[in-house]
Amino acid sequence: MNITNESTIWRLKCLELLYVNKGITAAQNLNIPKEGWKKLYQKQYRREINWNNGQVQTI
Questions:
Q1: Mind listing the pLDDT tens digit for each residue in 39-57?
Q2: Which of 7, 16, 19, 54 is found 20 to 30 A from 39 (Cα to Cα)?
Q3: Exposed, middle or buried: residue 14 (CB in 10 Å: 0-12, 13-18, 19+)?
Q4: pTM of the full predicted structure?
Q5: Contacts 24+ apart (CB under 8 A), 5-10
């Protein structure tokens, strides 16, 4: 099993981004639906693909 395919890692990283963005230090203070992190993951993935292809939309 490839560790990069493990959804738990990506879920935690996406939630960490949300915490930092909202200035929240404790997980219980952030109300996110159980699967709400997937949308953020998809946006981050597309952003990285666009960046690597030189198709940056905003800086």
A1: 777 877 887 778 778 877 6
A2: 54
A3: buried
A4: 0.46
A5: 10/37, 10/41
